Amino acid sequence: MASITILLDKCTGCTLCVKACPFGAIHMAGKKAVIDMAKCTLCGACAAACRFSAIELKKDGGPKKDLSGYKDVWVFCEQKGGAIQSISFELLGEGRKLADKLGVKLCAVILGAGLEEKMDELSHRGADRIYLVDHPALKNYQDDPYTEVLVKLAEEYKPEVILCGATTIGRSLVSRVAIKIGAGLTADCTQLDIDAAERLLLQTRPAFGGNIMATIITPNHRPQMATVRHKVMKEAAIDKNHRAEVISKTYPEEVFKSRTRLLDIVAEIGETVNLSEADIIVSGGRGMGGKEGFALLGELTKALGGAVGAARSAVDADWIPYSHQVGQTGKTVCPKLYIACGISGQIQHLIGMQSSKVIVAINKDPDAPIFKIATYGIVGDVFDIVPALTKEFGRILKK
Amino acid sequence: MNIIVCIKQVPNTTDVRIDPVTNTLIREGVESVINPFDAYAIEEAVRLKERCGGKVTVLTMGPPQAENALREALSLGCDEAVLVSDRKFAGSDTWATSYTLAAAIRKIGDFDLVLCGKQASDGDTAQVGPGISAHLDIPQVTYVKKVVEISAELAKVERMTEEGYDVVETPLPCLLTVVKEINTPRMPSMKGLMRAKSAKPLKWTADDIEAEPAALGLDGSPTRVVKIFTPEQRKGGEMLRGDTADVSRELVELLKDIVI
After folding, report:
1. What is the pLDDT of residues A266-300, one digit of tens each?
2. What is the CATH number of the domain that holds B195?
3. Contact B166 A266 (CB under 8 A)
4. What is the DSSP string of A241-267?
C-alpha cells in the first residue's frame, strides 16, 4: 500500500509543504513537518513542492513495465457534420512540437462518415500519418462506437501520447477509453511539454480550484492521455505541400454498434459562435439590468464578430440561456478579448475567464473585484459606454 | 426505479480567499459542501423517484467527515446513503476513483440509473462519471440538461453540446451526468432534516466492496503530481478615465490590433 513519510534528517523546517498542502494536513512541530494522516489524501502536492527531497511518497505500483513498444503522438481530431473542429488544428500545432521532441511521428486520428475529401485539410496541418475510420455509424459522435474504435486503434498501434480537446465530445470519449486501455488521463491541460530523457509527457493544468498549477505525469502506463483546453495552443500553420500517409481502417460491424441512439441534433446558438471557440466574448452580469441590456451587448458582439457570455446572476434571472454562462457552474473560456460589462467579478466567475488574454471591465462600482484582474478598466454606466463602443468599433472595423 | 447518485464533498468556493502575501488559498475556516453539480444530480434523482417510484441511494467516496454530505443528501430526499472510506483510497486519481465507485455500485447491486454531476468544482475533470460507466460497462450520456421521457427500459434525454443539444435515447441501466440547467434543487424539508439526523449511512471499506488492492488509491492511479506552482497572479491594469466619448475612443484604440 502507498505511504508518505517525512524524512526528518532532510526536513529543514522551511514550511513550503505546509503552504502547498491543499488539505491543510501539514503542520510544524519542533521545526519539522508533521503530516496529519486523517487529512492527507496522498495527492503529492507537498512532495512536489519540497526542495530538499524530504517527503517520500512511496507507491506500490507493481513492477516497472516495458513501455518501449509505444511510439508516436496522436491527436484525436473532432469533426461535427463533417467539419473538422478548430481545436483539432490547435492540437496538431502542439502535437508537432511534442512529436519532434520525442523524435516520433505526429498522427491525426479521425472518425466519421464520408471524410475521404477531408484528408488534404488534415495533411496540410502537418500530420505525418492519418488514421481514418470511415463508417456511416460514425457520422455523428456516439459514446459506444467511438470508444470501441479508438480502443481498437490504440491497442493495435500503441501510441505514446494521445491528445484530445477538452470538449463535450472529447471529455466523454477519452474518459471511457482511458479506463478500457488502463491509461493515465489528465484533464484540461493548459500547457504540455516533454521530459525527453524519461519520454514523459509533462501535463500542466490548474488544480485545486484554479489558484495552483500542477504538473502531472504518467510514469508507468501508456499511452499518456490528456485533454487540452480550447484556445490555449496555437493552431498548426497550413502547408499545402505537406502530404500525410493515410491509413484507412475497417472493422467488423459489431464494433460500430451503439447502445444509445442519437435521435436529433438541435442547434440553439444560431448566429453567434460557440462560446469556447470565440476569439472575442462580450459578457454581461447583473449590472445589465435585464434582457434589454443584453440586447445592447448583442449589438456590440455583432460589431466585433464574437460571442455573448454571461455571469450566473444574469442566467438565473432568465435574461439569457444557461448555454452562455461563464464561470464555475458554466463554461471556462480563454478568448483573446473578454469584455465584462456590469459584472462584479465573484471568484466563481473569475475561475471561468481569468486566463483570457485581454480583459476589459466596465462597471459603475469602482470597488468591483473585476477591476483587480482587468487589463483595462472603465468606471461608468454600461448603458452609455456599451453603445458608444459599438459605434466606435463599427467605425474602425468598416475601414 | 432504483437510482444511485454519486456525490463528492468539496471546499465551498464562496469561502475561498487568497493570501495576498503567499498567493495561496486560505483554507482555514473553509467549510465543505456538496459539489454544486451533484446537487442537481440529487434533485433529478429525487424527482425521478417521485415520478416513477423506487428509491434513491446516495454514494460517496471520501474521508469519514464526508458523512456530512451524505446526511445533507438524505435531507433532500435520498433514501439510503453509503460512504466508502478507507486509507487505501488515498491518492486516487480519476482512474482509481471511478474504479472504487464502480465497485461500490456493484455491491449496492440492483440499479436502473446512476446519476453524477458533470464534474466536481475542485478537480474539474469530468472524468469520473464516464469512468464509472466504463468500469461497469453500461451506456452513458454526459451533460444531460433534460430527462424527456423515462420508462423501465429506456430513457430519452437531451445532452448539452457546444452548439445546442442532442436528443439521445439510451437503454437502462445507464449512467447520466447532469448540468445545472436540468432543474432547480429544492431546500431540505423539516421531515428530511429530522430523518437525516437520525439516519445511519452504511460505511464500507476496500474489503467490503471486494476491490482489487492494486487498483486502489495511489497504487492504482496511473497519473502522479510532480510539481505544483502558483501561477503569476493577474494584476489589475490601467484605469481609463474621462467622459464616455473619450474612454470609448481610447479603449477602441488600445484594442485595435486584437479586433482587426
Report:
1. 987 654 567 888 899 999 999 999 999 999 999 99
2. 3.40.50.620
3. yes
4. T---EEEE----GGGG--SSEEEEEEE
Q: Is A86 on the interface with B (CB under 8 A)?
A: no
Confidence of residue B19 (pLDDT cuts 50, 70, 90): low
Instruction: Give the least confident one: A27-31, A142-146, A351-355, B200-204.
Output: A351-355
- Interface residue A197 vs chain B (CB under 8 A): no
Question: Could you tell me where the DSSP H helices lie in B158-243?
Answer: 190-198
Q: Is the pTM of this model over 0.95?
A: no
Amino acid at B140: Q
Cβ separation B134–A179 shorter than 8 A: yes
For residues B250-256, give the mean pLDDT. Answer: 92
Sequence-ordered list of residues with C-beta below 8 angstroms from that of A394, at least 6 positions apart, any chain: A303
Q: Counting Cβ atoms within 10 Å, is residue B203 exposed (0-12), middle (13-18) or buried (19+)?
A: middle
A219 touches chain B (CB under 8 A): yes
Position B241 in a domain: no
Q: Which of A183, A205, A212, A384 is nearest to B230 (CA)?
A: A212
Q: B224–A360: do the CB atoms touch at under 8 Å? A: no
Contacts of A5 in chain B (CB under 8 A): none
CB of A208 within 8 Å of any CB in chain B?
yes
The span from the first CA to the last CA of chain A, in angstroms, equals: 68
List, as ranges, residues 24-83 from A with C-beta within 8 Å of B: 24, 37-45, 48-49, 57, 59-62, 80
Among A44, A209, A329, whose Cβ lies nearest the Cβ of B180?
A329
pLDDT tens figures, B173-199:
999 999 999 999 999 999 999 999 999
Indicate yes or no: CB of B244 within 8 angstroms of CB of A397: no
Residue B24 has pLDDT above 70, yes or no: no
What is the DSSP code string of A181-217?
A: TT-EEEEEESEEEEETTTTEEEEEEEETTTTEEEEEE
Nearest chain B CA: its distance from A352 CA (Å):
11
In terms of C-beta density within 10 A (0-12 exposed, 13-18 middle, 19 or more buried), how is residue B32 classed? Answer: middle
Write down the ipTM of this complex.
Answer: 0.91
**Is A167's Cβ below 8 Å from some Cβ in B?**
yes
Separation of alpha carbons A152 and A134, rounded Å: 14
Q: Which domains are assigned to chain A?
A: 3-58 (3.30.70.20), 73-256 (3.40.50.620), 275-398 (3.40.50.1220)
Domain holding B148, by residue range, is 2-215
Tally of structural domains, chain B: 1
Residue A199 in contact with residue B238, Cβ under 8 Å?
A: no
| Separation in Å, CA of B39 to nearest CA in chain A | 12
Nearest CB to B124 within list A19, A178, A188: A188
The answer to whether residue B50 sits within a structural domain is yes
Contact A275 B244 (CB under 8 A): no
The grid cell for A73 is 503522438
Rounded CA-CA distance B11/A388 in Å is: 42
Cell numbers at A399, concatenated: 475601414
Residue of B nearest to A264 (CA): B167
| Closest listed residue to residue B32, CA positions, set B71, B4, B5 | B71
Nearest-angstrom CA–CA distance, A185 and A37 = 27
Distance separating alpha carbons of residues A22 and A44, to the nearest angstrom: 10
Of A207, A275, A396, which has the smallest distance from its Cβ to B252's Cβ? A396
